[in-house]
Amino acid sequence: MLRRIGLGFMASGVVWKSIEVASAKEKDDTQPLSTEDVGATAPRLVIVGGGYSGSKLAYYLDSIFNITLIDTKNYFEFTPDIVHLVGSPWNAEMDAAADRLIVLHRFYTRRANVVTGKVSHCGDDSVEVGVETNGKVVKHSLRYDMLVLALGERKPFPFGSNARTKSQRIAELKAFNHFIKEHCERVAIVGGGPLGCSLALEIAEAYPKKDVHLYHSTHSLTPSLPKVVQRYAFEKLSQQPNVTLHCGRRVIKVRSSVDRGGGHTYEVQHGEEPGSSVPRKVRSIFHHVAFGLEGKRSSAGERQKRPSPQPLADPCVDQGFDFVFHCTGSTPRTPEVSSQPFHKEHLTDTGHYRVSRYLQLFGRPNVFAVGRCNNMPWVRSYGNSEVQVNLLFRLFQQAFVAGTLTFDPREGIKVNKMLLPRMFVSFGDHGALGSTPWDGGLTGTTALREMLGTRKSLTQLFQKPVFYKTHQGDKIQRNFEQWREKEPTTNVEDFGVCGV
Question: Over the stretch 101-121, which tens digit does the pLDDT of each residue have?
């Protein structure tokens, strides 16, 4: 049987790099290279975060800037396809699939310095990163001319991990897969979004004897997607005999305890949302764009308070779960450094960076926040991150390579064109669900074909990188210095697109 995860990815024919770490063997980065050493005439661009947005920007801009990519791990992984690696029995095909889905940063970059470490401080012209060497954390200061914050979000295990190397991550996924297969008879999934629904059906079909419980706070599964997708997800899961849906039930707390055999068991405390006896109307993303976001800044600069949560009705406890998956949405990584003045003045109350339509921070023309860590009022997905990455690439090409020395006012994020997310997840052995801004909601085999094409377009460069001729660094530097002198980021209208 052809598995959807393996289609569209090829590792042959790749252009390999002839630099120190250009081998198929994995190498962990223990010492960062100084941004003064490589391409001294080109502007220094530091990218913090090696998720989809940070990794793709590093690839796109590798021939233009002197890039340093900082990440807590030495690899990039495509998170949505992790569902298959943890939800179905491990086999030989999965070894190859894991190797394709988890790619070393060194593989798709030619000139960039890759630093495996954690940023502890950001300043006006430098960042401080701690790198673990021989069990000790050594701090290094890296200067920058431009800074891109692509911190992404914190994802709970198994979708997020503390594994620093690719080999550790694959071993971790393989061990967890064995744990689910051999030791979990009853699992709970908190969150009925696309990821939660995909995982629930994956486990239920792979293990018909396992008892799967899905908890969601509204009566509509996948509320961020069109109604045709919501109905399809609900009907498909309702027909699965070993899946129990708890719609309209908000999870209050998940507790774990140690049983007599030394293993862990979990209990889920949940209650009914007030007024959820009938399906609750879910506001579309257009409502947020047209009428503003909750908790936004008013024109006077005072933050409006979010309404206090109401107590839940009919509280109850479900016990005896062997594992609980958290798929309720992720929180941005920015709170790790939110106490620093550099960040505090630019963060919303949800921990996202306030950005302009050019993805710049207010008053800082050379600092950008891209991907899931900014406050763009749309569903956070790989497709929407792709829109932001492509925008920055075009802006940098125009201003620094073509020499326009300014950002085109016709460019910028156009939120009204992204009312529907470009998002797909696998849903069963031969199906998928999701949406695109141009096709609307898609389900079944139609969605599967679109998903495979989307996966290929989003990840092909990581599998088959093509390296371009390096631009003249001195020319880029001159254009950058002229651009920085006159580039304003204090126009409030540019920030109005995000309702801040």
Answer: 899 999 998 889 999 998 888
